[in-house]
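The following block was generated as part of the benchmark described in Methods. Ligand: NAP.
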Amino acid sequence: LSKYKWGIIGPGSIANQFAEALITSENGELHGVASRSFERGEAFAKQHQARVVYDNYQALADDSAIDIIYIATPHSHHFGVAKMCLQAGKNVLMEKPLTVNAAQTEQLIALSEEYKVVFQEALWSRFMPCFVQVKRWIEERQIGEVQYITSQIGFAFGGDPKHRLLNPNLAGGAILDLGVYSVSLSQFLLSEYPDSVSAMGCINQYNVDDNTFVNMRYPSGVFSQFTCTIAAQCSNEMSVHGKTGSIIIPAFFWNGGKAILKKEGQPDQYLDFPHQVNGFEYQIEGTMDCVKKGALCSDVMNHQDSHNVMQTLDEIRRQIGLKFNDEIESLD
Ligand SMILES: NC(=O)c1ccc[n+]([C@@H]2O[C@H](COP(=O)([O-])OP(=O)(O)OC[C@H]3O[C@@H](n4cnc5c(N)ncnc54)[C@H](OP(=O)(O)O)[C@@H]3O)[C@@H](O)[C@H]2O)c1
């Protein structure tokens, strides 16, 4: 049986981890890589056994041998690159946050429907067994009626002012890069969309958000509260609190390595979820499964959910005053 042929656009830091997982797949293989620099593309291809290298992204989108493209550029470039790939009739798996704003996501979903190709957000945690188990515990009412979720995500990121996290022209800052996990995983665990959002944040000297604090209320009355930061060390833990117990997902929660169920009057239940490779394998298989079934996206991270996450992020950005330049916010 032939394997699905993948292409990678933007062979940077996360694309390396993605390629390490792909090489172990029985159903897919890395066919091509596209970089803005042929040398960078060639080095990546050599390391991860890709057959072809392109020095521009359009050429990879036009390669008829490729079935699925993984897009791992900075978020500022997600929309334009995904548009190009979908219009070339390619299935797409794209890194989080899906786009810079909800209007861009809407347009890409419309293209996925028009060209009948997969358009999948790579919010990898949602594909992991850990989060499936935690969701099951909540649905089984193991902790009684859920009252609230709380999470912290981030790092004291000193570093290079040219790094994408500190660059507003690459849609830097904490909320889009890190806060997206708290928004998306709360939505996943509660199976609800927030009906009210209240956010405060501080914008640093680079004009991106350093620390952002958010409260989200859901129609059932449950709350999710989170802090995301690129300026402080934090717990990187998520916990779900109910009337008769709680669930802890220890650091680094979005990696889905462990979950602890704590119930009143009972011993704690610890579960370990060692990854088969590095955690990227689940979304890789999930995306190929969509292609095989002819689905446009996976049930665990569907288009409506991705769109709602982007609407929530738009509202948080509006409240904290985080605006990017017209070029990266645009629909062109
Ligand atoms: N799932 C996860 O755990 C996870 C973790 C980290 C990041 N991410 C997401 O993955 C995406 C990439 O993050 P990363 O940390 O891998 O980024 P990165 O290493 O800084 O950049 C990725 C690649 O994008 C390409 N690129 C295209 N236009 C660019 C521009 N104007 N400036 C800089 N690079 C540009 C570059 O490749 P060429 O120049 O060679 O084409 C670069 O190597 C982000 O959206 C991020 O949110 C996900």
